[in-house]
Fold each of these.
Amino acid sequence: MGDSTSDTTTAATKRYAQGALIATSVSALVVNANTSAVSILIPAISEDTGTPTDTLQWAVTGYSLVGAAVIVTSGALGDVFGRRKIFLGGLFLFIASCVLIALSQEGIGVIAGRCIQGASGATILACGMSLLSASNTGKAQLRAVTLWGAASAIGAAAGPLVGGLLASTLGWQGLFWIDAAIAAACVPLTFVAVQESSDPNRSRSIDWTGTVLIAAILAPLIFGLTNGSAWGWASLPTLSCFAITILAAVGFVLVERRVKAPLLDLSLLRNKILVGATLSILLGSGTVNAIMYVVSLYFQDPATLDMDAFQAGLATLPVAAAAVVIAPLITPIVGRIGARTTIAVGFVIMTVSFIALAFVQASWTYALFVLPLIGVAAGMSLQNGPCSSLSTACVEPGEVGAASGISNMARYVGAAVMTAIVASVYSGVTARRVDAGESDAEALAEAFSWSSIAMGIWCALGIALALLVARHVTRRPTEFEAAAAAASTSHTLTPPDAVEAGAGAAPR
């Protein structure tokens, strides 16, 4: 009788684990595909809605801005109220945002929908990862997380191609209708096949004020960076935006020192390794998002390569392939040459690639872009994976959850801020060159060049940051932490030893 009960329990546990793997992996694939596809759709959305591409960059930066504010809070909500409940809330919100965007006749609707998607996407990734960890143990947990990371990587890689294909056939709205349908299919699966879990040891307090202040820091900063060249960098509107950002940042620090469960544990910022790894993640993720935004505009502009959306998505395939191919090689490379050297090499490759792109001319064909863009993707993979692993290896087990939250927030912040900066450079240089009498093609090439120079400078700073990373690390990354390389473009993983220490999953 006892054996029969045990067998039934084991079968149910396996069923729940499999259900969690399917639901979280499919949703992660859809979220990452949606995120990477939107830049390719910007020209088509602009033409259809009559909204300038300069304005529609908020569809990209707004998503990341809200995601940065919500990523840690959504995980905390899952720990307190139940991860399945909050995960389902993320799915419903994602479906609603897709419908809003697909039905929008104006750019403001697209931007609003994308901001909502920033919240839903961050929630799906954060709570999905926690559900997956709670449903598996040991080798099964490592396997599940690796598959989740692979699904995330495949989604990010396929997004531009699928989005471009749909934009060229069904219209740009097709991506959002299909994403809504897939997310909707995950809802009944989650209800039936995913077990609820929470963290009874976590404080019931939620840092709502910190969440709002993160948005208050980033929104005016991005607004100022985006419009600074048009307003004038010393103008009252621009300086006012930056002043609000500074005041919100001061307020954030004051709040985080006093709340019971802070959004950001400020004491962790004394850890030089964590700070170096986090800034490296910010730079790497930010530059990749920024270059894909510029590439999507440049490749589809009639004055330059004049690609349609599908051709532009297809043109990004070598970039995506490079990231997918290198992901499983990262752990062996780190084992051979060390984390700090791997990170430095990644940033060197990215810097050299951007230097090459800085020589772009109006006469360049697509073939001349391929190798530098592959270099950017390869370099990002080499630096981002080890940084993700080190960000959890350089702190005490009980601090791993907070450290991974900092890394995840950095990804969103980097994408939001650096895309805004590059969008400002690209549009500003283009306008000035056209006003100076240059042809559209020459002006756009010059804008692409200056954008590449800006990104190259950031990557050069990353080389210097690599000197901070991996110094005085008290332990080597575990096998589980090494798996973070596969998911490094979307999430930093929380290892199971942190779960046991009270920082992660605890089934109820």
Amino acid sequence: MAHTDNTERTNTTTTTTTSGGAGMGVVVGALIVVVGVLAYVVFSGSNPSANDDVSITIEGAGAAVEGAADAVEGAVSGEAGN
């Protein structure tokens, strides 16, 4: 005798899509910018402490500075003459 198959078979396909790639792209982009800025600062070749000489010139001070150099020399040598 022939056996009849009375069972039903149902196939269900579920597709799940995640969109976490955009956030990861922002994080990676920010890290690239930070590394680029640090590399520029480290390898720029500028030496900010190389210019230690300071020169100040005051023009037109007139009578206010007359004899100031002699007073400073006297103070340094211990012969302040007032």
